[in-house]
């Protein structure tokens, strides 16, 4: 079996592209291949650097929502993208309207009275990862990048003196751990 790609797979693209001129210089567009996938490139490269990807990573459509786009009146669709689910216009790339799927739901106030132990200026707040899992991070982000995965508790580590503990559930019961990753001392929840 040959390891080369069958050129007949690309012949439909090549025949469809023979009549498209380069929008920058008017030269012919040629099908090129790179490690990120096939693309159209100008025949006058490197003088003309026009490229057009043939494979778009715009997110695939999960389901149409039946609601009109506020910008162009086309239908909004739920898409799965690189950073999770989002609502976008079905008329993309002409219309670039996007919104969060949780934009209409009221946000709960998950601020904490706990001061960030790293920067001592921000407070720890509950946030969600792109997969929907809760974590707790400093509200001074991006200046402070402190974050923990378990619910934070006020307290001090008995070993290293770090000013924050996290609550973790084990089969033997709930324990308090030092939030300092270098220490991670386990204390009883007493």
From TrEMBL:
Q: Does the keyword tRNA processing apply?
A: no
GO CC term, one of those recorded: chromosome
Alphabetical UniProt keywords: DNA-binding
Molecular function (Gene Ontology), one example? DNA binding
What the entry lists under Gene3D superfamilies is as follows: Bacterial Topoisomerase I, domain 1 (3.30.65.10)
DNA topoisomerase type IA zn finger domain sequence ranges: 21-56, 67-101, 116-151
Q: What SUPFAM superfamilies does this protein's entry cite?
A: Zinc beta-ribbon
Q: Which named protein is this?
A: Topoisomerase DNA-binding C4 zinc finger domain-containing protein
The Gene Ontology biological process terms listed for this entry are: DNA topological change
